[in-house]
Write a structure and sequence with these properties.
five-stranded antiparallel β-sheet; 14% strand; 60% helix; 5 strands; alpha+beta; 6 helices
Amino acid sequence: MKNQSPPDASGPGPRTFHSFLPALAVVLVFTGATNAIQDGGSGARSIDEMRLNMGKMIETQQIISKERNDWTHGKEILQGRLELVRTEIASLEAKIAEAQAGASESTRKREELLAESSRLAAIDAQLKDTVTRMEAELRTLLAQVPQPILTKLDVLIQRIPADPAETRASAAERFQNVLGILNELNRANGDITVEYEVRELADGRPSEVRVLYVGLAQAYYVSASGEAGIGRPTSDGWRWEPSKAIAGDVLTALEIIQGKHTPAFVPLPVHLQ
């Protein structure tokens, strides 16, 4: 008996069980046919068995082919699903990275806004302290303002908060109000105005007089009977003193203002502090 050469290592690899099934079926059929010939007397039965075995072999091959096709189709489906899952994972990872970047940016902006808010709060507190001091100084100044001017400024004066800590007005609104009052006072300080007021004369009788205000620092009055006086601002309000000597000069000044007298130099006493 000749020695058989070993199989080529470079040939096809190990075969699966499914690949041996057709060959195995042929061997079984061949074996059955051989046994049928050896039996001799049972030829018809052997042919039937051969047909039956051939049918089973064909059926087995069809089953194997169907399973192979199903497995190939199932593999393609699984690979497609796996690729879809990988795509979804990549998309989710990208969205997560984007969300993290957005969160970091939001955190940075929030920190910037908090810092800006703190800075503005400090500025607002400083402005409130400043306007509170200005309002206090303005109250002292208003005590020295003539009553006719105070009457004109009454609406603005009422806006000065009685308690700065409890007011709902903003610092900007309070600044605007203070500046409005100061502007009116500055305008009045440069004007010469004439007002009709009731003053107590030297004999103690109240009488209507004409008052000549020179800005906010000096005033002169004269009655219809020729009684005159001088008014000056103090920390407690205006102080009025009778002065009969200036009655004629005050009348002349009033007539000049009213256009009843030609312009002229009128000497009136001025008290400067």
